[in-house]
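re: ur question from yesterday

yeah so i grabbed the chain u mentioned. its 385 aa long if i counted rite. heres the sequnce exactly as i have it in my notes:
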Amino acid sequence: MADQFAGTDDGDVEQLFNSPDYDPDGIGLALSGGGYKAAAYHVGALVRLNELGWLPRLSRVTSVSGGSITAGFLGCNWRKLAFDANGVATNFDAVIVQPLHAFLTEVNLDVTQGLLGLLLPFRSAADGVAGGYDKHLFHGATLQDLPEEKPGVAPRFVILATNYELNSLWRFARPYAADYRVGRIDRPTLPLSRVVAASSAFPPFFCPIEIDLRGQRWIPTPGADKHGGQFLDRALLADGGIYDNMGLEPIWKRYGTLLVSNAGGHFDEAHHPSDWFSLLLRVINMIHRQAENNRQRPLMLLAKLNQRRVAYWPLRNSAANYPRPSPQLPSAEAVAEAQDESVRLWSLGIKAFARLTNHGYSLCDSALGSYLAPPQHPVPAKLPF
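ran it thru and got these structure tokens back, copy pasting raw so excuse formatting
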């Protein structure tokens, strides 16, 4: 991966190597944020991972924002998947791909729920997004409907959100939900739709979203300086991408192999806005990109120093940048259109979904084939769409 390390310095990253729970054989998969755009892009990556039998091998799946739509749906329906002897879910298209295709190409949330949140008292836009997720995807499921972690059978799913008050990271999973400053909830029964809505509650219209924590089984943890009062009754949360848009925090200290699907868009260097609103958006984009770079650099350094095995496929990349590009490549025009797709919770349309899914599939295959796969890496027969 030497060609991917431009701009990386060899700073102090020892803290990334010293987790007492480090498992050199473990595999972590991180699905980034980016609204419906990210959700569709990650579907393509998951299709290829399934074809190669990687899904049951995963130790942990982490997600933020749009990535949590796809990860949450995959986790909620994991028990329905029929895996063959090679670890391939033979019904993956019917159980996972087609329902997400229908949701991401037909259901509009952001403008509709944003307006209703402004017009209706006692109901926020984030509440409407959570309701939409529940109606179309999760149907009353809670965190306890995610699969129980078992090596070789099912990973742990961890959905991330940002604590709006404390600027810390909430982790939501089946065995526990936790914020290191507040404490831990064992076996949380929180609605999956509301957790995913919190993970994707991007500002300013969809955050904060309130999660009711009353009645949950709280455990104080070392260093939890806010374990008390209002912080135990409710959490005010925002998009997980504010804290960690690539979802790396729960996996890069813990596992020897890191798979990272990053749907972050490209930065338009030629655009120079003149009005104040466009200028504000550009500055926010610049801050977001710098935060992403500060995650990407240590990730690449881990690989460079042979501390981790890494397959990284950012949406703004192209297959030509990999030593062994996938033989199944979308057209250059389709890739460019996929990269330019806006970040929203709004229907992608069938063509945009296909472009994003195919691009995610092709880059995932390129990254795995270049850096992790054995010589007999099976060649993909065709693009998903």
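noticed a couple things. Confidence is low (pLDDT under 50) at residues 1-12. also The longest helix spans residues 276-304.
anyway ttyl
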